[in-house]
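Q: Second attempt. The first request was missing the SMILES, so the protein and LL5AMS7Z are both included now.
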Amino acid sequence: MATSFSCSLQAILRPSHQISIALLSNPSSPSSVGLCSNFCPRIPSRFKSIPSQFSAKSSSSLSATPITSQIVSDTLKEVFPGRIGFLGVGIMGSPMAQNLIKAGCDVTVWNRTKSKCDPLLQIGAKYKPSPKEVASSCDITFSMLADPQSAVDVAYGENGAASGMTTGKGYVDVSTVDGATSKSIGEHIKATGALFLEAPVSGSKKPAEDGQLIFLTAGDQSLYERVAPLLDIMGKSRFYLGEVGNGAAMKLVVNMVMGSMMASFSEGLLLSEKVGLDPNVLIEVVSQGAIGAPMYSTKGPSMVKAAYPTAFPLKHQQKDLRLALGLAETVSQSTPIAAAANELYKVAKSLNLGDQDFSAVIEALKAKLQE
Ligand SMILES: NC(=O)C1=CN([C@@H]2O[C@H](COP(=O)(O)OP(=O)(O)OC[C@H]3O[C@@H](n4cnc5c(N)ncnc54)[C@H](OP(=O)(O)O)[C@@H]3O)[C@@H](O)[C@H]2O)C=CC1
Ligand SMILES: O=CC(=O)O
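A: Got both inputs this time. The predicted holo structure:
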């Protein structure tokens, strides 16, 4: 109970931080300042991380009244008085739905493989046997699917979400897909009278568990504002990028860079070893310098041990590179580095590494070196 209360408190304060910061930093109320620094340590940094020109944070409904669990739950009802559906509870969808449930939201889940819903049902989620039934019983439905085909099937295939959508409802697709797929899903949703937002996320399994994702949204702005408190439960920042397709494009460009970085890092690890250096020292040097990225220090040590515990499946990284190359094609931009990286991920997939973490791309390089 204590855990779920503090989780709710943090989640509820986050969407409303502009006013809560003002109230809690009142010099006449030093104990309130203590409460803020104890319970919302991430507020200052997340505040900075949301570029004001892109964000449309909702205003606060919090008051200076001492916070009790009843007030927290009332506040949640005020910032989001609705039922939430979640379609697809794989590596990402599961912790995202879990954070909504822990924050006190009324969440109904569906997954193609039903057993993956069980841990969520145990902590209070409801279950419906099809995307259609989830959408018809919820106000807002999120989907987190593997790829364009599954996103389409779940959105407007047989018994898809669109067949349960009506005016007043909203569909938020957080899967990583290409812009054309997203637009097609948006058109089918809007044809029902409902609203559509694409909102792919940057950040992997751990950021999803920690509620630290970055949402790259585009589409209906009123829906964006309506779901902002929910995005703030699951993420640390959110960007509103305008027309449907822009969120997908931003996500693909980011993951194109990430895939190339991982391939290049793999090459460096293998070269360092070959010339007699300790690759663990290379990881340390890279991490301390200007090219340091959390990805290198978190994944590097296990890569040296040839272990690839899955956070971001390699097959999804290859899908993102493929889609990014398609995006570049639409504007006739040459992307030779991403194209070379994509070839490596394809080799890794042919070595049956698709379900391993994308850092397993190093195995494709090892195989090439042995040729
Ligand atoms: N993992 C990561 O670090 C990140 C992933 N992403 C993106 O998020 C999305 C989900 O990724 P992740 O959770 O890692 O992947 P998973 O492979 O763990 O989950 C994929 C989900 O899609 C479902 N699915 C796949 N095919 C179908 C289908 N034909 N019909 C219905 N459902 C289907 C799966 O159902 P089932 O359980 O039955 O297989 C599962 O729920 C992807 O687009 C990925 O690129 C974005 C940011 C980070
Ligand atoms: O899409 C993957 C990620 O880490 O972001």
